Amino acid sequence: MALRRDSAQSSLPSIGIIGTGYASRIIVPLLRSVGFNIAAAWGNNAVKVKNMAESLNIPVYTTKIDELLLRNEVDLVCVFCPPHLRADVTVKALLIGKNVICEGPAGLDKMDAQRMVDASQYYPKLLSLMAHQLRYLPAFVKMRELISEGFCGDLTIYDCRVEMESLLGTKYNWLCDLVMGGGGLNLIGSHFIDLCQFLTGQKATEVHGVLKTFNKHTEHIQGFRHITSDDFTCFQMKMDNGCFANVSLNTHMPGKFKQEVMVVGTKGRLVVRNGDLYGVSLEQSNEEKLLYKERGRVPPLLNIKNLPPDIYVLAFEKWLQAVKKSFLNQEDHRSSNLDFVSSAAKFDDGFYVRAVLDAIVQSNKTHEWVKVELEQQSEKQPF
Hints:
This protein is α/β, with parallel strands linked by helices and 383 residues long. The protein folds into two domains: 14-133 and 314-343, Rossmann fold (3-Layer(aba) Sandwich); 135-295 and 356-366, Dihydrodipicolinate Reductase, domain 2 (2-Layer Sandwich), CATH 3.30.360. The chain is 32% helix and 22% strand. Strand 13 (276-281) and strand 14 (289-292) form a beta hairpin.
């Protein structure tokens, strides 16, 4: 019999963590920092899941997915495993009656994403969210508010540039393989595809992309295995209401992180540099002004090598705060107030992002503009 938790925690669902990688080790302390209880963890490697559970004080761990999903105390499943497993785990969790939050992107292709959408629609009362947490970075929240108020006028350009260190570790794994979901396009680009839709309110109709793998081997990854995941990516998107998007992702900058997202319109422009928002109103002056300064406190993450940029951690924490609010004062742990996560990415958004990613990969192969296919082939049952 489970011990009784305090009143604040008792109204929150207990968490089951799917995956033992870097993202899982980040999300566990963040979930705890906002008040969630971690009940169990799953991994397909017995040694890795045992080590993670012991280092993060997770009471139950298993290599059998059904064993975690069928535990009564697990109400919310956090799917942070490699992309090829995400759709299967998500659909099974929803079928059993669990709430789900899933790391982006949604699976390896549109078929995976479609299954996730179908499952979420089949069980609409369950929470089903994609972890595109940049929507909750305060600077982007403020930017979207100003855009909706007409600060920029009619939108013409969405321009995003990210410079950061390599996404690879010291061992060969799925991160090194483009087919398995590795690379800057999937891991980083997916978030900026979603962010573009969130900020502009427009969706991509056609895309053109270039994916490059300049480092096929590293100091630690040698021999017959070579890296196929992209370490430099540049893609453009024609949006459905006239805006044009350009995204450049460079993972060849060790020890450096720089992120700039600019939205330009007929009346002005807004730009977020890391976590700070600047703006120029052409109706007032050509002088760039600071409109929001990020001063948020980042929750401490202990015993984690190569910490993610502070703004990513802060955005994640803000997103989890919204998820927490959606569960407070509910009749049971399977119910949530979706008004508190109205700005969060749903599985439909995950399908859109996955469709854009697939089109960019195709464009890289054909060297041509590729239409984004957004038609969903709904089925009666997603199982």
